[in-house]
Amino acid sequence: MSDFVSDSWHYYVAGLVVLSLIFCAWILISNMTRRKPGPVELQDHVWDETLQEYNNPLPRWWLYLFWLTLAFAVAYFVLYPGLGRWQGKLGWSSSGQYKAEVATVNEQIGPIYRKFLSQDVRAVSLDPEARAMGQRLFLTYCAQCHGSDAGGNKGFPNLTDSDWLHGGEPENIRTTIENGRIGVMAPFGEALGSENVKDVANYVRSLSGLAHDALRAQRGRQVFADNCVACHGPEGKGNQTVGAPNLTDRTWLWGSTEATIIETVTYGRVNQMPSFKTLLGDEKIHLLTAYVLSLSAGKDAQTR
């Protein structure tokens, strides 16, 4: 209940709970009538033409079960949170329990983490136990964007190939996980106009050997030289320093169709990889770095 903006909500919730318990008790008391001697009356209402119900009181054992559940509810609200901001006599909270469980687990597996932290990342990436731990971390924190197989999705890099936006060396991967990355492709649609955008899109497709309009590609070459080489380089091979993709290979983060490239040039793109430094800490980041490194092991590093 810490998100309440005023005390009135605290009293409202607490009062509602207490009134609900009192109402339940009143219902039980009102039904604690004993069976009268003599013939049992029938209820006035009739179902399905002939079905009627005897006016018998509720069985005692049934009422006692209701009283038991009511007593349990009162005990629960005394011991645990439930009455507005009241934390309960036990002081329990879901966040507190989570922190305690995390602390217990960290105490048990801390020595394993520290063992791998003292080793070189490349050596850790070859250790089966370390890779298994790294995979579990990856599935927990990274699979939502990069996929459970690390094959990536539209707008999210494939981590199993040899293409790297910011470099595939251990220090580059660690920096990415620790600090995150923000990739920005500026929009050029308004500055270039639709025809120039289409020309440069065809030129970009020509760089990687894709089908293109030769005349438009020829015109787009100059447009590219005037506007794109600062990031992608004069040959379109990209720049890992700023995370600019290599446009001469067959790896595409957003897609290689003419329409998609036109959309990218016109409106730009913004990608963000969040920082995990505070969330994971040095030991887990070390294992995660080793796991990501192992995904593309044996492949020549390239730029994208």
What does this protein structure show overall?
The chain is mainly alpha-helical. The protein folds into three domains: 1-32 and 55-92, no CATH class; 102-178 and 277-303, Cytochrome Bc1 Complex, Chain D, domain 2 (Orthogonal Bundle), CATH 1.10.760.10; 184-273, Orthogonal Bundle (Cytochrome Bc1 Complex, Chain D, domain 2), CATH 1.10.760.10. The chain is 55% helix and 5% strand. The protein is built from 13 helices and four strands. The protein has helices spanning 7-30, 60-79, 94-117, 121-125, 128-141, 143-146, 170-179, 189-192, 194-207, 214-227, 229-232, 258-267, 277-295, and strands at residues 163-164, 181-185, 269-273, 302-303. The strands form two sheets. Strands 1-4 form a two-stranded parallel sheet. A two-stranded antiparallel ribbon has the order 2-3. The longest helix has 24 residues, at 7-30. The two termini are 48 Å apart. Mean pLDDT is 90; it is low at 300-304.
